[in-house]
User: Fold these one by one.
Assistant:
Number 1:
Amino acid sequence: MTNSTLRRFGIGLLAWAVAFVIFFPIFWMMLTGFKTEADAIADPSLIFPPTLDSYAEVQQRADYFKFALNSVIVSFGSTILALLIAIPSAYSMAFLPTKRTKGTLLWMLSTKMLPPVGVLVPIYLLFRDTGLLDTRTGLTIVYTLMNLPIVVWMLYTFFKDLPKDILEAGRMDGANTLQEVWHLLLPLTLPGIASTGLLSVILSWNEAFWSLNLTSSQAAPLTAYIASFSSPEGLFWAKLSAASTMAIAPILVFGWLTQKQMVRGLTFGAVK
Amino acid sequence: MKLSRVLPLAGFAVASTFAAHAETLTVATVNNNDMVIMQRLSDAFEQSHPDIDLEWVVLEENVLRQRLTTDIATNGGQFDVMTIGTYEAPIWAERGWLTPLDSLPADYNREDLLKPVIDGLSYNGKPYALPFYAESSMMYYRKDLFQKAGIEMTEQPSWNDVQEWAAKTNDPANDIAGICLRGKPGWGENMAFVSTLVNTYGGRWFDMDWQPQINSKPWQDAVGFYVKLLNDYGPAGASSNGFNENLALFSRGNCAIWVDSTVAAGKLYNPAESKVANEVGFAPAPVAVTPKGSHWLWSWALAIPSSSSAKETAKTFVAWATSQDYIALAGEREGWASAPAGTRESTYSNESYQQAAPFAGFVLNAIRGADPTDSTLEPSPYTGVQYVGIPEFQAIGTRVGQMVAAALTGDQPVKQALDAAQRATERTMTRAGYIEN
């Protein structure tokens, strides 16, 4: 075996080991969902009589599909809204910067440093007075605002990597700003926009603080659904695992289906 | 058009209007077993009240507490019925956040409610929540291990007895701990237990001037005893064990003695959930210097926030869910061992319940003997056995719980941990205006 083959084998082995470590908690959660509560708390074992009891009970206690639909609507809704706002702002910051652009970008990012609980009461009161409590519209707005700094930053980075000459060539050919964005910028940076969108969907899907605090029965997404299956009094690991598996299943499948685009987007412009 | 044709149409229109105007109640509950059963049985309520629809928000205890506090403090009006505990009921009632429940249907039989339980949910003599189920604390032990060690259970065990018995039954080689107790930090976790231990050692959280007493002698005796007992005869990693972990340990046969909530009795007695179902013995919570405050009192109850826009309808539901009829329904449909316990005298005189729950007498005595208004040897200004009924207690209890856990793990000596807890509590109480600088 040559040195390079050995090196490749070693790197491959390391990659598998890292992947295994990252995936193991998810694997164990999926496994626990098929155990009885007694097996779930017993000494860890890979061999056990599998049962669907936890899944049945989880579905009996709460309507999974209602929560899942809310998750889909608010995650994708907030992502579309965030992209609609972020694309023009990232375009202007990347191609028409002013002396305040850097400061604005840093300020946007700094809003992510504030613990959400610090603004819970003002937002709750605002939502109460505008009738947005426990509505999908309200949650979509909050998620949009929550993800906007990251979406703008990512798009700004992708747009910055695009040579200005391409857009200038378009302008020379008589394209206006809208045509420039639509026919040149968007197609050329599509992998980046797609990966930004995917990341925004995942972040919204997994968000738990706002969803638990701003919704009750009508707009509650899957994060609120999961929260009802842990308990300080009583055994719950199997039910919680079953509920969590059901909650992450759609986004996991979505992630698998789009992983090529995601990787392509995240490495977009990395090698020029 | 003939009248005979018009009338059915009009009737249909009126019926449709009523159907369209069925009132919706949003019920927020904690996700423990009893509440999940209530959710399951609520179809009976909806059938008997077709004009009322129920929407459920079921959350874990701590998440629910935070969610409800945000809503009720901001007058959010998101919920019509809330599940709250004996800690919140008087505090929220005092602030005008809850609807008084003094006018109940004639057939409600309020006199049947256990007095300590309804008293704990009242403020200025008026009930502000109705109990759904209640619990106290007691001692569980393994009859087989006791017999093997030649131990005879006494009518009222003392903590010295427990120490002796834990030493005799402790068997690390066979993975059996002599004693299991709560160690996980939190005001509702280790401090629920430690507060009762401090009470029975003659201690209290505050004196009559709200001066914290956490580094006083009874606290040092109680916490010193607790730390030594668990370190000598407790399971490995006791500082991360809460109710669930200890329940799992005891039901798997890894504990000889466990002192905790009466709620565990049904689970330990159920062969489907417990490997030691035939070997479980019950006894009152142990005492030390005084029996006062040696066992706690807690109830989950249903309350109606002042911000609800459907108070009368909510009252109908609350009365139904806390009634004798509901208990009978739960007993018949879910089995009598699953009927909500600790709220009504009639439950304990019911033969079916007595047969299904042989521990019922212990639970009833424990609840009757717990007095949240007089739980300390020396006088104290607060109500609550295992907590202090002031809004600041959640933060104080959790902070002190962390210090006690640090003493348990050996990170700090007991005295140093209690001194630190005393200083932290003094700061909080000074900031809150209870004591002056």
Number 2:
Amino acid sequence: MAELLGFPPQVLFGQLLIGLINGSFYALLSLGLAIIFGLLNIINFAHGAQYMLGAFVAWLGLKFLGVNYWAALVLAPVVVAAIGIVIEKTMLRRLYKEDHLYGLLLTFGLALIIEGSFTHFFGVSGQPYSVPAALSGGNNLGFMFLPTYRAWIIVASLIICFGTWYMIERTKLGAYLRAGTENPQLLQAFGINVPLLITLTYGYGVALAAFAGVLAAPIYSVSPVMGSNLLIVVFAVVVIGGMGSIAGAIVTGLLMGLIEGLTKVFYPEASTTVIFLVMIIVLLIRPAGLFGKEA
Amino acid sequence: MKMLKKLMCSAIVSATAASTAAYADISDNEVRIGYLADMSGTYSALAGPGGLEAAKMAIEDFGGTVNGKKITIVSADDQNKPDIGANKVRQWIDVNNVDMVAGMVSSAVTIAVNKVVESKDKISLVSGSASSSITNQYCTPNSVHYVYDTYALAHGTGEAVVKEGGDSWFFLTADYAFGHSMEADVTEVVKESGGKIVGGVRHPLSTNDFSSFILQAQASGAKIVGLANAGADTTNSLKTAKEFGVVQAGQKIAGLLIFLNDVHSLGLETTQGLQLTTGYYWDRTPETRAWSKRYFDRTGKMPTMVQAGIYSSVDHYLKAIQTVKTDAASAVMAEMKKAPINDFFAQNGQIRDDGRMIHDMYLAEVKKPSESTGEWDLYKILRTIPADKAFRPLSESKCKLVAGR
């Protein structure tokens, strides 16, 4: 077979698939961020810490209570979302009318506290979490060996991303949510409990982060710093997609995974910087992001 | 006038007495050891609090005193930052009268600290660091590099792997000074032994996902995937390699800097078959077993080569003080370089003039889960790399203390 850009095509296919898998994480995480920003106007810097909490709840559950992976996939997001709701009710709530900066500072501070205390108790070297038996092993696709667990990540993430998009853009509940962002007073006049709606939205965004954390636990080490490594990239993804755009976050997440994957083949040294390069270019050409609407 | 003369005389006499006393005896009647290491970060498991415990064991086993003078120890977390480490050591020496610094992990910290130690004419015994430049271009007369270095790792593991047919290599290299020098050292060895390098990637430090690089390694067709990285990057590479079935597909992995705690935390399922070079393994001789058992009882873990080396280096230092009856750096260092090291850690170990402690190194292979009989039954020793082959010969040294020999 002919070579593509100096690389055998099977290498390229493999890298694209890997990119898609990493993109799935970006999509899940940036989706949560985009929902929270779109509906609450809060830049949630604690998102990385909440992702880490998801992984840790799964690990702690397995180690001390015997909660298996599948149960953790449901339980960890619920537990972490509950923590998120408490944060929203007691702290974030007071900041909606203030400048973005206050919400950012609060969530950033919370992230530092959460990560700092986990580092204190668990140390920075990662905790092992094994792949569930049903998803271990893999298939030889001809051009690459695809571990079953990685395939599962794509499937799970696409289901959740599409479901969330559908809920917000196509259902009545989603319509309320969108209306609540546009004009909360008017919506409240129709008898909808807007504060509750907002609380639940934050909880859902946080649950998405925790879900991604559980998905990540078996392939990356469960460590207190796992979220902060990823968070900055995810913020760049949200900015590229257009702040607050749901579909934009998903599509851009997958796209950035692909671009990063290709960079790892052609110039690995730049693989951690390429997303920021894309961000700069996009902001120069389309300041509102790829899918954002100009204000 | 007569009074003044008398005073002058007595001042001179007492000053002379004081300075001779400082030389012929223990300064301020106490031997003070400073233990410097990463106590809470990335490298804290390989030395860290465990290494401090090993140093304390050495002092207790010595009886807590040397020539009737008390031995004390202080410790600090250098956070892998050269400025913090160097300042701490300066404070130790200036304010707390510390005589010797032990431990020392990050090579960057060590090079900075060694400069301070040399300028203050104290002693440092480096057990944790990897870079062979510590006794090469950065060598000082006041420092000893005790356990291992990149040269030894590259030659030990590299040569053995090529000899067993692993003659084509693909590198996963951490893109910074340590990774580059590790890769360069191994490349030289592989080429000398008749192998070739078919490719490699340089990944940024603390890369999150290694799957792409592992895929490239698989596509390269190399027989050996060499990991010229450390810490979390190494454990993540190994995890991903296992997930993508690198070993099942017929390639072998050569970990170039892997400690016992890495293998223990990753588990044998992931690490089996891995070949590595180590300066110490707990289950090698009756002596190593006996000492390691005592260490285990205190810490709940088996020692890494670094932790065992810390005990041995502190013990060797105290013995030298006992012999020369002073803690003055030059006299103690001369004795340390003269006396061979024979204990559970090293047999006929010898500190060279460049500060390199040469001793036998061991080529080990990680056991299969079926071969292991216990939580810490992790390595089998394949062979001994004799001391004179394990480390960079003086004839190739760039150290100012031995140049031109």
Number 3:
Amino acid sequence: MNQRNILAAAFLTIVAVFLMFSALFMHPFGEPTSQAMDQYIIDNTVGETGANNGVTSVVFDYRGFDTLGEATVLFTAVASVVMLFRRLKK
Amino acid sequence: MKGMSTIVKTIANIGFPIITIYGLYVIAHGHLTPGGGFQGGAIVASGLALLAVAHGTSWVESKVKEHDLSMLESLGALGFIGLAFLGLLMGGAFFSNFLVDTSMLFGAIPVDGAANINTGGTLPLMNFAVGLKVIAGLFAIVLVMAIATNKEED
């Protein structure tokens, strides 16, 4: 065994130990980490945004900034594909 | 691509309005039922792709130019960001829902938790903007790819 393999094995052991430690203190499976935000949105969606669809009210109102990034990703994808294939056409 | 047989063209002509109306319904009812601008836009764009496959790209190219599609997509993006900045101006925060609980369009407040098509504030407007953007963007991708690969073959 050369030095590199020993180094890799040591690194792997350290990472595995850290992962196991974090797995011991993990949240119970399936339970949300924090319910305050969920309950606020469930209680106030209809009154604050006037929408029955809670997902839309989160996507376009409470977390609108995230959707702005999503729209930017789509815009960039379309712009780059159109640019690439327009050049290919000629 | 020269287009397919008459059977395929007829079926596509029958199916296209139904798919389009369903997609527009998903966009317009984004704040009431599952779905929204992204999902409805993808449905409408798939209907347009069906037309492009059935009739051939040269037929579609004679009806609509990819340049106009890019312009529509930018218009949708501008509308979306413009609504967000309007929220900054009128509601005091970026993406603020300034239309809700006013007498303007989409400003009605839901009675007993039951929203209708006229509620939601800026949510329906943002759904329209994003829907326009997704329709134009996805169809532009499909059209441009079809045209480019078509020119290579012949």
Number 4:
Amino acid sequence: MEWATTATGRFHSAVSIPAIAYRQQTKVIYMYLFVSLLLCADRWWNGMLLSQLQPAFFVTPMNVTAWALMFTGIHELFMNNQPACLFADLLLVAFPVMYTLLHIKQYAKAKIMLGGCMLVFNFVYAQCYTLYPSNSIEGHIGWMLFPVVLMCHRLTDFSFALQVIRFVFLFFLATAGVWKIRNGGIFNPGQMSGVLLLQHSQLLATAPSSFLAEIYYWLISHPAVGYLLYLAATLLELFFIVGFFTRKADRWLLLLLFIFLITDILVMRIKYWEIMHLAIPLFFSRSDLFAIADKTSK
Amino acid sequence: MFLYKLYRYKRSLFALAVAGCLIQLVIFYKQGAVATPFFNYGMYSEKILSKDQYEIYKVYVNGELLKGDDYSIQEWDKIYVPVYMYYAKDTTNELMIEVRNRLLLKLQLKGLEADNRYFENREFNDEAFIEWYAAYLCGFSGHSSQNIRVIKQNYQWNGQQLLPADSIVLFQYRQ
């Protein structure tokens, strides 16, 4: 009987490491499908799909890539054009399903091509979507970048690409903490009061006696408590720097991510769930799939 | 180190990763302008102090003020984000064209500065916006669109609460 020692130290009889890694690759793709469908359902439930936004005008952002795209005029395609918006929404949902089917059937070339299509499509969709009254482009980074992983069929390429996405995720949160030091927000004791007033002025003005407004007013009038919240958020973000040096803390980082996302909803009323694609690698960072890249380069 | 592993594995991928890092460094250095997918994730990192005055957009449907706590986060955004974006669009778009043209000039890309076909949406005027907004608002909020009034009101911050001050009516829609 043939035995193989995997990177995680477990023993598997008569099963090669690539075979195990292939199964883990399949799990990654299932998770991608699950997250994508969940995010699409969330958008649909909240009326945030392109077809539900019914875009009719745009505002140009300070974004060089957006300008390059706008020269093509593609963003005007979706304006007052419900069939085009519906088609784009349909593709957004259908692509992850199609990709999963191709993976199950092991159509390698078709998978790579579809991954490429998804990369271009998700990029154009997100870029156009955020030109209209919706939300900011930064939250769509997971949608835009994860297809890079899907374009890799070979396990080694897949493993490296997954690690790149993991670094982008760490970068996303860690630099948010670094910027708070660099731009001085962390050194301003009244920072959270200013932030809450700016973020919730609409709600405070229209529903001043609501439960939420009372909480926000309380935090604003207790700047020390507000500042502690801001400091805690900054420290939480900075903790993600650990991830650049070790993958052993990834489970903790996932826990911190969920705390961050929930607190963001409660305190800031900002939904950042759309970045969930970037967190997928953290679920697999102790697996043999990651170890493949480590071993290949030795 | 990951970059070293990548270098040992495939030089082309390593070059791509280094190029990505360099672009990100430029974005860091420049601050302000970004280039998807390279961003600065500031997340309220600048010093933000309480202001004396805040500009508030208020939407009344059939005489009733729409209140923030009656709607989900995204529904609430859908109510007022289109209003302030619409009233900011021409100024913002013009400013962006200026900034874009300065960059084009630096890159010696002459001839593109005048190409503003897809950078302005002036045809979408007040009348079109009001018609669109009324249908859009009623589509997701469940209100009937008999009467919509949108005002912009200044609110003074007195250190404890926001107090209403002067206001202007942005538009009134009657079906």
